[in-house]
Design goal:
heterodimer, A: 108 residues, mainly beta, five-stranded antiparallel beta sheet, three-stranded antiparallel beta sheet, 8 strands, globular, B: 374 residues, alpha/beta, Peroxisomal Thiolase, Chain A, domain 1, four-stranded mixed beta sheet, 14 helices, 16% strand, binds zinc ion
């Protein structure tokens, strides 16, 4: 899923699915392309849960429309870099098989 | 409370019983005097394969016929149990309430404990392998970039909290450290290192709350206990340096108490990571935005400073047995406000204290204001 969720009533965007929009209470969301975001912060995590890569480089990125995302970095990136969501990637192994999702990558 | 420890041989239930007995003894009350019991615990099922904690505790105390329940609010379960006890007494439903919080985390290895705790996140966060220190690393990196604080200033938070715990017989660590020790410790979530992070702990804490004139000569008054949720997914906050739940809980508490940040003489802040001490001080109005680090560098948050922060050592050095922490903060304030503590670890002339206990990385926060007699 390289998409964000946009509230049909007020246009608020989020990466994190929920029943209701925190801005207006709306319950309908449409998937929209995330577009180009900016990396606000990065961290390299050295103590990770079982099934998660170690080290795990993570970034916090802001996308247009006010949606922020914390996701694994697909390559080496720095604060201020332009980023996009890329998928789908194998993010962590579980007993029920791998969890797949998006990562942050540099804009081409 | 029990002394917090890396590993305590006693069971979770035994820890809760010891803490409860000590609180009753301190308040000069018997179990029979209590009519409601509020137990704070995050994950006894996962850590200890124990369920039905509240009923087991009251059974152990020989109590029947009381109202009892467990309160779960992840790492703020203790303060939420305290809030539940305060609300029960304030509403008149309970005459005398016992709030007990505890956790025994040593039963799980580090990977398992990390997994249990990371389960509090949103599914989209969980799939990324995000842990609580990950959020701390992201916030710390952003803070160090946006302010003039440097990595050594962050280390000073841990150094201070270890120094404060040195003479605290209930603290997990009675060991002074210096900035070099912090910078030499292994990286956990850059720029945060091991000594920026609180440990996993075993321990329990308890207090008695009652209305009107207390049995003790030197009671401490609950001026306010208020809470607020923030977003569940941390990135749903547009500013990574904001913890809205802490700000709102603080504002509500100041409103309810009728005094503000200026009146606070000492504070117990939820320093699960060094960076959180600064972010929460700023949200609570205890330092201007982007400036809390200067207070640390200038020694204003030291035990003998203008506003001592975490005089008992904080989560960093007193320890962080999840469900016990919020109540241990209240106990530290009570001891300080009553003047019970030896000089070497006492805050001089304190009459108003603040405690903030935070769930997750700001999912929920509980702010308590206490007033002493002095
Ligand atoms: Zn909306």
């Amino acid at each position: 899923m390289t998409e964000l969720l946009e509230c049909r009533d007020c246009g608020h965007r989020t990466f994190y699915e929920k029943h209701r929009c925190p801005e207006c209470g709306g319950a309908e969301f449409d998937g929209v392309a995330a577009g180009t975001g900016e990396l606000l912060s990065v961290t390299t995590v050295h103590v990770t849960p079982d099934g998660v890569r170690e080290p795990n480089a993570l970034g916090l990125a802001a996308f247009p429309g006010g949606a922020n995302v914390v996701a694994q970095l697909d390559e080496t990136l720095s604060i201020g870099d332009g980023v996009r969501l890329v998928g789908d990637r194998e993010l962590r192994a579980t007993d029920d098989g791998p969890l797949r999702g998006v990562r942050l990558a540099a804009v081409e | 409370m029990t002394a917090f420890a890396t590993a305590d041989d006693r069971s979770l239930l035994d820890l809760l019983l010891v803490a409860a007995e000590r609180a009753l003894d301190d308040a000069d009350r018997d179990p029979a005097d209590v009519d409601s019991v509020h137990v704070g615990n995050m994950a006894a099922e996962a850590f200890n394969r124990r369920s039905g904690l509240a009923n087991a505790l009251v059974g152990g105390l020989g109590m029947t016929g009381v109202t009892a329940r467990r309160v779960e609010n992840t790492s703020a379960s203790g303060a939420s149990a305290f809030q539940s006890a305060v609300a029960a007494v304030a509403s008149g439903r309970s005459e005398r309430a016992l709030a007990v919080g505890g956790e025994k985390m040593s039963a799980a290895d580090t990977a398992t404990a990390t997994e249990i705790i990371s389960r509090i996140t949103h599914d989209r966060e969980y799939e990324q392998g995000v842990t609580l220190p990950s959020f701390g690393g992201l916030a710390a990196a952003a803070y160090l970039r946006e302010t003039d604080a440097d990595r050594r200033d962050l280390a000073r938070v841990a150094v201070k909290n270890h120094a404060n715990a040195y003479a605290n017989e209930c603290a997990q660590f009675n060991k002074r450290i210096d900035v070099g020790d912090v910078l030499a410790s292994p990286s956990v979530a850059s720029p945060l290192r091991l000594y920026d992070c609180c440990p996993t702990s075993d321990g329990a804490a308890a207090v008695v709350v009652e209305a009107g004139a207390a049995a003790t000569d030197d009671p401490v008054t609950v001026a306010a206990c208020e809470s607020a949720t923030g977003t569940h997914a941390v990135a749903d906050r547009t500013d990574p340096l904001e913890i809205e739940s802490v700000r709102v809980a603080g504002e509500r508490a100041y409103d309810a108490a009728g005094f503000g940040a200026d009146a606070i003489d000492l504070a117990c802040i939820h320093d699960a990571f060094t960076i959180l001490e600064w972010l929460e001080m700023e949200e609570l109005g205890l330092a201007p935005e982007g400036r809390a680090w200067e207070r640390t560098r200038d020694g204003l948050t030291d035990l003998d400073g203008e506003l001592p922060v975490n005089p008992g050592g904080g989560l960093k050095a007193r320890g962080h047995p999840l469900g016990a922490t919020g109540i241990s903060q209240v106990i530290e304030l009570v001891w300080q406000l009553r003047g019970d503590l030896p000089d070497e670890r006492a805050v001089d002339g304190a009459s108003r204290g603040l405690a903030v206990n935070v769930a997750g990385f700001g999912n929920n926060a509980v702010c308590t204001l206490l007033e002493g007699d002095a």
